[in-house]
Amino acid sequence: MRRSDLFLPASRERRGEWVGATRLLVRAGLIREFGSGLWGLTPAGQRVKTKIEARVHDAMRSVGAQAASLPNLQYSDRWRESGRWGAFEGEMFTFRNREDRAMCLAPSHEEGVVHLLDGLVRSYDDLPVVLYQIDSKFRDDHARAGLLRCKEFTMKDAYSAHVDADSLREAYRTMRAAYLRIFDDLGLTIAVCGADNSVMGGDRSEEFVAPVDEGSCRLTHCSADGCRWGVTDEAAEFDEYAASDDCPDCGGRLATDGGVEVGHVFELGTRYTDAIGLTVDDRDGGTTTVEMGSYGIGVTRLLQTIVMQGAWERDGGSDAESLDWPVTDWGSVAPYRAAVVPIGDDDAVRETATGIHDAIGADCLLFDDDQSVGERFAESDLLGVPATVVVGNHYRETGEVEIERKDGETRSVTPESVPAAVERFATGD
Ligand SMILES: [Zn+2]
């Protein structure tokens, strides 16, 4: 992408009420507020979201989940059958349409997936089925910290249907493992916490909580490498554990931080299928009520959480002056993998810079407009681009260009080897 073509309303605005990650995302021009609890993404913000979604789509395919699409606008009948009409913690947007029928904007899709399957799965042979979508959800929640808590947000929600509890437990374990691989690839530290099923109902659930400086809950978690043990202040046993106690799982040291819930998996059992009436023929000639699981990841919340954890771990928390996206063996969700900064406008520099940009492709930002050199470096840093390619004096003297990593480390390579070097160098190789 050429900088001269990019719509990037980087405001560098230091005033305003935003703090921490929200302030950074606004300042870097990735998000814009549309009123309390409503946010839009600019093209650069949308690029980050699309990369997160690509990783989630891959994980869902790897566990055999099939993409579906359920309507967000729904009539009240299924919600009345499940008992959640008006009971969704007072957070459901409800209204009457022109025919005076009660409708809602779906805050979740357990009722929707039961409706989709009802009458279409008839026998144990038709199960298990795992469906998912990545789409908007609507909840009239109290707005908080930018994308962390919104009234409309993007979520990956998956649902599994089973003939018995053993099959459900197996799908739950598979999905839980896939979630941990997603969070590892995105470079997030995550604790897994036993949780209350609350408005979802059902038998068992676990939350995936990212430790951050200031989150939406308090989290006590194990600080040992590879251990995922954690408990949030929403659990009754939270007060039984203190920072610097021994971890009940591995004996490591516990720490207490803020936390953000980025994922939640539920063994719902027959909570919805009983209420709405979803049965299949079983192996013994009788009928049995379908067992269900439900699995969510907050995609837009994840975007902000990655920024929060990155700023907290690497750049001094709310004082951070630039975005800092983790780079793992999988890659990075940074809006651009690389930026090219030409210094001087002689033909050789301009042609080499353009050639490098064209070779890397759409994931590269070429600073080709009338910004000063200082402004170009500042913008690349603010956006958190992991590798900045400098074509200037060093190139004129040696024929090689410099790649600067966000942590300041620099390497000199030939222009032809930049695409491969950017990939390796960004992962610390
Ligand atoms: Zn531990």
Automatic annotation (TrEMBL):
It catalyses: tRNA(Pro) + L-proline + ATP = L-prolyl-tRNA(Pro) + AMP + diphosphate. GO terms for biological process: translation. It comes from Halolamina litorea. This is proline--tRNA ligase. Residues 406-429 are annotated as: Disordered. The lineage of its organism: Archaea, Methanobacteriati, Methanobacteriota, Stenosarchaea group, Halobacteria. The keyword Thylakoid does not apply. Residues 43-335 form the Aminoacyl-transfer RNA synthetases class-II family profile domain. SUPFAM superfamilies: Class II aaRS ABD-related (SSF52954), Class II aaRS and biotin synthetases (SSF55681). It comes from the Archaea.
